[in-house]
Amino acid sequence: MTNQEHLFSINIPDTKKSRIVIIGGGFGGVQLLKNLNSDYFQIVLLDRYNYHTFQPLLYQVATAGLEPDSIAGPLRKVINRKPDTHFRMLKVNRINPNTKTVKTSAGVLNYDYLVISTGAQINYFGNRNIAEHAFPLKQITHALDLRSHIFQQFEKAEIMTSEKEKKKLMTFVIVGAGPTGVEVCGSLAELKNKVLPKDYSGLDFSKMEIHLIEGLDRILPSMSEKSGKKAKKYLEKMGVHIVLNCMTDDYDGEVVKLDNGTTIHAGTLIWAAGVKGNLIDGFGKKSILKGKLVVDEINRVFKDQEQKQVYENLFAIGDVAHMLHPDYPKGLPGLAQAAIQQGRQLGKNLNRLHQAQTMKPFHYKNKGVLATIGRNKAVADFPGDLNFSGALGWFIWMVVHLLFLIGFRNKAVVFANWSWNYFTYDRGIRLILRPSTKENDAVSREMIEAMKETQE
Amino acid sequence: MTNQEHLFSINIPDTKKSRIVIIGGGFGGVQLLKNLNSDYFQIVLLDRYNYHTFQPLLYQVATAGLEPDSIAGPLRKVINRKPDTHFRMLKVNRINPNTKTVKTSAGVLNYDYLVISTGAQINYFGNRNIAEHAFPLKQITHALDLRSHIFQQFEKAEIMTSEKEKKKLMTFVIVGAGPTGVEVCGSLAELKNKVLPKDYSGLDFSKMEIHLIEGLDRILPSMSEKSGKKAKKYLEKMGVHIVLNCMTDDYDGEVVKLDNGTTIHAGTLIWAAGVKGNLIDGFGKKSILKGKLVVDEINRVFKDQEQKQVYENLFAIGDVAHMLHPDYPKGLPGLAQAAIQQGRQLGKNLNRLHQAQTMKPFHYKNKGVLATIGRNKAVADFPGDLNFSGALGWFIWMVVHLLFLIGFRNKAVVFANWSWNYFTYDRGIRLILRPSTKENDAVSREMIEAMKETQE
């Protein structure tokens, strides 16, 4: 790959302005970019993908409710509205804060300011078997793989002779009862109860099982106790088996081993049990806390967290950052809102910096937390102990998500799809388009390879 | 794979009715199924995919105009409306007309009547290099691969140092000027003229080249001369280089060799130059003509075409069939309409057969032929030398395609997308979701492997 460096160059026009390089076009990166004044700065956005993803709705793609284009938008469309703003689709391999350079798959780029907004990746906590056999749900490609896999399970079950194997194909285990786990469970339960029996008349859907495994003593631990209980009631009514206080020890593609001694024969395990910061090489222990880049209240990365020294021109926002903030001793919540607010704040701060004004510390404004379990079944927590559930919660959930989806077109298509799904209990997108393997997903492949190397 | 046979069984309930097995859920197969009376027959549909594809719009998926769910529908949705009708997703390996059985990847199934509606596959005319490096456009997966590939070319071009390489990445060669080739050309030209320059400000789009190579002396040979000329004018005005009377000899992924001695350096070759029947093993030369199953006017496959002997219970319809018909000495046109009409007719004929009535011979009703080149640019031929072009042609094209797309939901989504594209000159679906290789596509892989074996 070394002589590739002669073929490619990151190739950004020279500028007299300061150059801000943003790594990662997620919620934080895009919001930052929108708030930066391009009269002050040249802006360069780098990402491995050419689109940004509305991750809270990935589960809808995975369960045939929406197509990818509804929850993802081309990053170049965001870029092309701003002058002297550039996008390059490539992988960043290393950051060197001393030389103020990033090393990418297409060569080296120097920066005046660097913002790392690479988000989070799945955390398998070192369990290689699970990494190899479980389905993650963090990227569009994961969601498409999972969708194809789910429907392939039922197609296979129709032609399977052994009752035991048939049951295995129809058994789904979801690990982790955060919003992703709960929403996938609810959506699978709706497929089981309303959509699939019409399609697969040869299968007995009373035998389809959905298990939700959670290590803590409740579901939706990031939400109010009231909402957690309500969501649990909804899921159980829909037929989901919930196991609390239980860790998942192993999965070989066929048998899930739980730490309470029981096993579940399941053709599918969806891993929604944890994420970790998507770190890039170039930082030592002094900059890292709980697997994330530790930052101050202005999102500056600590050069040395003990000595309270920061890099003046190097920032991290969103899920890759752990902010030391007196109001949030456990760190900010891993929500889109937190990334969006940090991106917006940092954009304004950098504009202030350029004008020699003082940068302002970050304050998180809790705008509420939502999770949907199914049609007319959602839970919503708002500041001031305001909780909603049922049809009203669901309505709030839908409006909020429609408002957040970027771009008028997506909103119209999403609304058309959801209306259709609501009134017909149909899911149009039951197409099996991809081979059901992890081979398509370069990131998963890399991760598994790295684990193999570590274990050897 | 042999002990798989014990694990799987095709598993259709026993019946006292006659069993009709349909292989292939394309236009013909679906239409046949809809017209069969399930009081008379048990119906079994077999397909490798779990969806049917509106193939005339594949080029829109390939060029980021539509998402797959807009032009594909789950086959089980068609099935689940009819009693005693069954779908199995699997591959048919062999037909044995003597024992009245089909051998599939999940075991053997016997039939009383068999209908082969497996359609067509890409014909590379034995050119292994082209098969390996060109992009086909016959399946949804092809269209998604091509879409990712097209946008990857521009992302790469942005970071490419060599001007020569950059130009190669921005050069597209389309071989074959039938409707698919012409429509892809037009859609690429619109991307070049209206969409991409906004996205890739670092690239000089006057250097983007689109070449259309055709072996015959005109484009759209299946349409009227007037429409062919009009389409040629449109394409040339949009900047497409058209080369007529020219065969494509070779392509190694970088250089296209034409038989007029010239070469074109191109990162993409789209092969729309020919198709052949998607035959299944089990038939000898006596049943095959021009690479298709030869059938009589009732779509019965000939056991021996010279002796005019037919199989009484074995039919072929659509693109896999070559009908001996006095009105169509060259065979029926390879259009959706021909397959649809044959499927409908055969369905009614089989119902008649059950009632001991006489089956009626097939007559093709030409409902017109359409091709679209771009916004407000389409050509339409109707019976009685009625030709339309321009905005009116385009409007007719749009209405006809909307009416044909199966299912209300798809129509609404397609119309929303097209309206958006029309008014904004935007293409929302510019997401690079798949690695740009043919490795995802099992059919292409099989075909290339088979060619390697033949050549060795």
Automatic annotation (TrEMBL), chains A, B:
It comes from the Bacteria. Keywords: FAD, Flavoprotein, Membrane, NAD, Oxidoreductase, Transit peptide, Transmembrane, Transmembrane helix. Residues 367-423 form the External alternative NADH-ubiquinone oxidoreductase-like C-terminal domain. It catalyses: a quinone + NADH + H(+) = a quinol + NAD(+). Signal peptide: none annotated. Its EC number is 1.6.5.9. Residues 19-343 form the FAD/NAD(P)-binding domain. The chain crosses the membrane at residues 391-408. One of its GO terms (molecular function) is NADH dehydrogenase (quinone) (non-electrogenic) activity. Belongs to the NADH dehydrogenase family. This is NADH:ubiquinone reductase (non-electrogenic).
